[in-house]
Amino acid sequence: MFQNAKWIWHHNIIQKNDYGVFVKSFEVDRFNKAILNISGHNHIKLYINDKLISGYVTPAPSGLNPKSYLSYDVSKDLLEGNNTIKVVVLYLGGSGQNYQNGIPGFILNLEIEEEAGVRHILSDETFSSIKNHPYVTGQPFQQNRRITPVERFDSSKLDEGPIHEPVLVLEGYHNYRKQTIKEGIVHKTYEPRLLSQSNTVYVFDADRIVSGFVGLDILSQTNQVLRVRYSEDLDGDRVKHNVANEPSETYYDELILKKGMRVSHAFDFTYKAFRYVEVEGNLDELESFSLKVEVASTDLGIVGDLKSKSYPMITDLFTLFKHTQTNNTLGLLVDCPHREQAQYLGDSALQAESIVYNVLERKPLLEKVLDDFMDAQYADGTFPFVSPGSTNDEEFSLKIPEYDLYFIELLEKRYQIDLDQKILHRYYEASKKVIDHYISKIDEQGLVRKNEHWHISDWPYPSVDQEGDYLCFENMHFHKNLSSFIKLYQDRIDQDYYRKLKDKLYLRIREVFLERELFKDHEKAASYHQGIQAFALNHGFVLDSELDAVITYIKQSGFSSSIILGRDVVHALLKSGYTKEALDYMFNYEKGWGTILRHGSKTMWEGFDDIESHSHAWGMYVVRLIQTYLVGINVINPDTYIIKPIMIDEVKDIAATIVTERGLLSFSYEVKESDVIYTYDIPLGIQVSLIHNQLTFNLKSAGILKCKKESVV
After folding, report:
1. For residue 482, which of 474, 201, 79, 461 has the smallest C-alpha distance?
2. Where along the sequence do coiled-coil regions lie (predicted)?
3. Residue-wise burial string across 584-599, b where 16 or more C-beta atoms lie within 10 A, e elsewhere
4. Greatest pairwise CA separation for the chain in angstroms
């Protein structure tokens, strides 16, 4: 797609947090169509005739082989006659946690279908570099993880005539893949509340943690520098110097102002996340001042819904999900939007639960995770702990064995959306490699032995005992994903070989870890973690004769699991028919989602304690569990659904909308005395069966069904 285009940059000195501004003017005759392909590293802004064409923070962070590129139809942006292309490039180069250093620069091919034939405008030596641009290079990073740079914008340069310099052609990249995840957009712009002001400091409250940017419109009476600092927290009446739970003196941007010059600028080259904003400078010397918060992230449609009038925390929970998932989709599914902006397999798998039911772009989002980790997979079948990332740097060279297996879970979730066989083919080799790696680690005891890497059964602040040589969760988790692998690839693999391994592993798990009807945390442990019992119940390790003991133990353990295993606890309670207990676990303990809501938070926390990051989407799987069990919407296949609501006294009404391959499916019920009123809207081509007591109704199109609790009216 780049033909004879060249990868260009402005000099041959590689330095961190460097900017390049490149321009080219050209004439266009009468034309029919114009398509522009572009890639850059790390992020670009593309302008045609001073109009921003690209989205924000683009391309999305990804690996280097292949390198992501974007394609734009610019037919309506070109003019007959003279045109100008401008490309602004930010190169990070700091060996940060969520990107690879790579080669700075960009490559571009504009293909124009003129009446006289096809013409190409290419990135090459005919571009020029602007020497005196307003972006100040070499600024420090804002986080310890070296994710985003301080953006120091010198507006005085805007008054200068551009000084053109020749460009430098670099080797660049040779393998490209079109970006399918959408680019960043600004979802909403608003004025935050002013908390305090003085001659030198303004402090604003955005009302909740948001991802995005701050925009300023200013006229200063003097030359000066304004500093805009970000944080989740206040420190007295000032903004705290931190990024989530990590200290930072540099989580700010700066705007250099020229006397008498009006400046409108948004610090929008990289994502920030914050609730509070502090502006520091000689504010009494400003003739005019305006600050706006721009809520920004990947363009995604959270079109699902979940609400209840009788149990309003369910409605609030969905709002929590919308806010947090929006914050945490920043070109990839990030763990948190400020401290790391990193993509983990485990975090992504937990986020995928509710994404699959509620987000239009569910397929490209999940494929982005799978692609990023497939591209980064090591020869032995394992994965780096994050991808993309500077995992060759010792600081970010960690491995999390249990997280490797979430690759299979994510693949299964993606495949179940539409049963697309091409998806299975695409990820077969990567899936087989990770499964075979785990098989190679089964020792003479018939179990996977714990290795030296960072093991995570539950997180954060887990109470699972991991001091043994064999971890119960790791072995169960492998068995579960081995079973999924066999099911997904039953026509492609030696089933007999893999099934025998799976069956042997199952027996050894029960022989080694099962004691008095409960599963020990490891082979020598005296502890029986609630979440491990729930995982065992959900994935077939508990026999019918043991079920009562296990579910009783789960209920009696109170709130004793963290985010990862909390998913299994809620799931186990719901699937076992303990709906009230599941609601209590979610909403009525000292910890949990209800406590977060009662705290007044409008985004989900990293864990259930009021520390660390306060915008982590991985705990929002409960949205889908409520949609699946209380509302009762179950996917059989992409065109077949069974709805079997669970009704309890605490919830008199509930409504949900979910995403299907044929459109949005909406369903609700309301209990009025002895009647149940069902309301539904079913997309054309979807078969839906509603089970009410012992009766089954086939639902089509939109309608209302009124039932007695025992018979149909």
Report:
1. 474
2. none
3. bbbbbeebbbbbbbee
4. 83
Residue 349 contacts residue 636 (beta carbons within 8 Å): no
- DSSP class of residue 402 equals H
Domain chopping of the chain, boundaries:
7-139+157-178, 184-298, 305-630
Cα 548 from Cα 569, distance rounded (Å):
15
Reported as a single tens digit per residue, the pLDDT across 504-557 is 999 999 999 999 999 999 999 999 999 999 999 999 999 999 999 999 999 999
CATH architecture of 184-298: Sandwich (2.60)
Phi, psi (rounded to 5 degrees) for 476: -65, -40
The beta strands (E) that lie in 244-314 are given as: 246-247, 252-257, 262-266, 272-280, 286-298, 305-307
**Averaged pLDDT for residues 219-233:** 97
Strand stretches in 123-271, DSSP E: 128-130, 152-154, 164-166, 168-170, 176-178, 184-190, 193-197, 201-220, 224-231, 234-235, 238-239, 242-243, 246-247, 252-257, 262-266
Percent of the chain whose pLDDT exceeds 90: 97
**Contact between residue 414 and residue 423 where contact means Cβ atoms under 8 Å apart:** yes
CATH topology of domain 7-139+157-178: Jelly Rolls (2.60.120)
Which two three-digit tokens encode residue 213? 């940017």
Model confidence pTM above 0.90: yes
pLDDT in tens, 72-122: 999 999 999 999 999 999 999 999 999 999 999 999 999 999 988 999 999
Question: What band does 713 get if pLDDT is binned at 50, 70 and 90?
Answer: very low
The answer to whether the 7-139+157-178 and 184-298 domains have the same CATH topology is yes
